[in-house]
Amino acid sequence: MPTPPAQPRAARSLSVVNEEIRALQVDGGLLSTEGRCRYEELLVEWAAAVRGDVTEAA
User: Rounded to an integer, what distance in angstroms lies between the CA atom of residue 4 and that of residue 42?
Assistant: First the structure.
């Protein structure tokens, strides 16, 4: 049975997402498989936050 899609989280600010990405990079940038998955999720969230900032600025 397929896993249902995750419920969207409330949008977090760009600075909060950036800080979490930086925290993952503290160990010299070497990530476990789980860390890499989290990093990829954060990049998607970061991109959405960037688009939100651009939309608000326009």
Answer: 20
CA distance 41 to 58: 26
Q: Which 3-state string (H, E, C) describes 1-58?
A: CCCCCCCCCCCCCHHHHHHHHHHHHHHCCCCCHHHHHHHHHHHHHHHHHHHHHHHHHC
Q: What is the pLDDT of residues 5-53, one digit of tens each?
A: 554 556 788 999 999 999 888 767 788 899 999 999 999 999 988 887 6
pLDDT score for 4: 57
User: Are the beta carbons of 51 and 16 closer than 8 angstroms?
Assistant: no
The number of beta carbons lying within 10 Å of the beta carbon of residue 49 is 19
